[in-house]
Design a protein that fits this description.
Blueprint: H1 11-17, H2 19-23, E1 29-37, E2 42-50, H3 52-73, E3 85-90, E4 95-100, H4 116-122, H5 145-151, E5 153-162, E6 165-172, E7 177-178, E8 182-185, E9 189-197, H6 209-225, E10 230-234, E11 244-246, H7 251-255, H8 261-265, E12 268-271, E13 276-280, E14 288-291, E15 294-295, E16 298-299, H9 300-319, H10 327-331, E17 335-340, E18 354-355, H11 368-372, H12 378-390, H13 392-407, E19 426-431, H14 436-442, E20 447-452, H15 464-469, H16 471-480, H17 487-493, E21 498-502, H18 507-523, H19 525-529, E22 533-536, E23 541-545, E24 553-555, H20 558-564, E25 571-575, H21 584-592, E26 596-598, H22 604-614, H23 619-629
Helix pairs in contact: 3-5, 3-6, 14-21, 18-22
Amino acid sequence: MNTEKYQVKSEIDHVLDRSGMWLGSVDTEMMAYPVYMPSKNKIQTLNVGYNAALNKLIDEVLSNSIDEYRRSKSYKKDSLFDITKISVIVNSDGFVEIYDNGGIPVQLHKETGIMIPELIFGHLRTSSNYDDTQEREVVGTNGLGAKLTNIFSTEFTVNTADGNKEYKCTWSNNMKDISEATITDSKQHFTKITFRIDLDRFELEELSVGTVRIIQKRCIDAAAANPGLVIDFQSDVAEGKLNSSWKFNSFEEYISLYIDKELINKSLIYKSNKDIIMIVPDNESSNVGFVNGAICSEGTHIKKIEKQICDKILSLCKKDDMELITEKDIIARMCVFVNCTISNPKYDSQAKNRLTSKLDRFQLNFDDKFLSKLKDSELYESIKAFYNIKYAEQKKKETRKLNATIKNTRSKKIIQAAAKDPKINELWIFEGNSASNGFRKGRNLYQSGYLLRGKIKNTLNLSREQIIENQELREILAVSNLQFNEPQKNIKNCAFDKFIFATDMDVDGHHIAGLLIAFFAKHFPELFKNDKIYRALSPIVVANPHNKKDSTKYFYTLEDYHKDEKNLKNYEIIYTKGLGGLSDHDYKQMLRNQKLIKFDLKDIEDMETINIWFDKSTEMRKQILLEDSNGDLD
């Protein structure tokens, strides 16, 4: 057995030999990446040479300065100084300098006896971010960060001052060698990190223009995610054309580098204390996300935003008879810009490109006011336009098939009118079979009846396919000559002048009438506009006279009955308990001397009212019920 195959490596050699594990790929590959175009003052996607590990090395040091800026702005103010400016120099020979006007304590660490700047940049697995009981709203998590940059540099120098002392120390030979630190008195405060990347480890002779442009983009991103922070960028590549200074007063300013003002005006913006989110109706741009000041455009934050938008739009599509629209269709027609703050973030790797933190219900949670704006948004208009292109013809075929099913349906439950004249025929829809005898005896020649078994289904959230599966609803449509999506034909061919809902005057009866109204309002609004939908009022108290010469009195509310109660001494009082309590004579009275409520559907607000009361769950309904229940407490 060859025991020499077992090796022991130092931590530094392990990082150098397994760089992909810590930094990502060390290979340079051509890929589409957004970069800044100075001539257009826009960020556009170009094919550039991308080296994940190389970019991460520079980003780790830059992230330290950004984290310190965010600490200085947090409510804890967990930093020595307010950082206002960061300067970044990246040259083609691998020289990098990152400066900020903050400062690191030039002090001995009590537990280790090591100077704090040396501990931060020269010792693996040291960090101020290890305490997970404390909320951290920065990028750093694992205590590796800038130490990895040190390891992959031929030379790495830390120069910092805290207003009392200035510290300077240099590492070389991939952090294996360290010079003696110098400490002097100083009233300045700053941190300057300079390093020379070990390009041989990446099989490179120099940094490409593409790499430098990606780092410049990272500086722009950092300034955008931290409004008010100034970040200067310099490089010797492209004859200094990339040299620039960045400061954003708002996240919208940054977004204008991607899309034009017209598209921004069509977008929806959501702002909370910690987060800014813009939903853009655009199928060309990619999502752009920041977590705690660092670019992170994939993960749980993006998914949660997309899920809320999709759920709301899908509910709107269902109401607008566009059930074929999918989440994929919606996501393909929008992009998300988000700058969010996540406490103690977790990522899928040291590269921190994908957030994996499980977000609670309070994080990145849209309120109802914002979600309600989607109905009239440009995004929803684009979804409707897409539906008409892709799905409308398919929907028409499905509707024709459903209409054919309706047309071929025969009903054994319908009580047909003796004479047929669509101009005066009425369809009375009754709650339960108990009305059968009374209706048959009391009706006129032009009245038809249909007896429901009880409550119909709440159809507001059912597809038309599901509705047609319901035999009673299908039969009602069939005997009425009604067809889906044929409003003009329905008015012309409808078999009845009136649809009259005859239900008990109690809670269940009101509910059944409401369910019928919701059904016809959603799928056949033309019937309302042509005065065809009614509800019959049935008496709740019948007063039969002892003297046959007097007439029977009918009361439709208890209030009316009590007003006349003193005049009813010679009457037999009957509380009807619904339609089942009516006599044949009472049915005739109801059918011949009708007391009807006509229903209108004048505008979209009427349909919204129906949605409030019959949708599966609405906050507005809960609010109304709570207001009613608290009405006498005010």
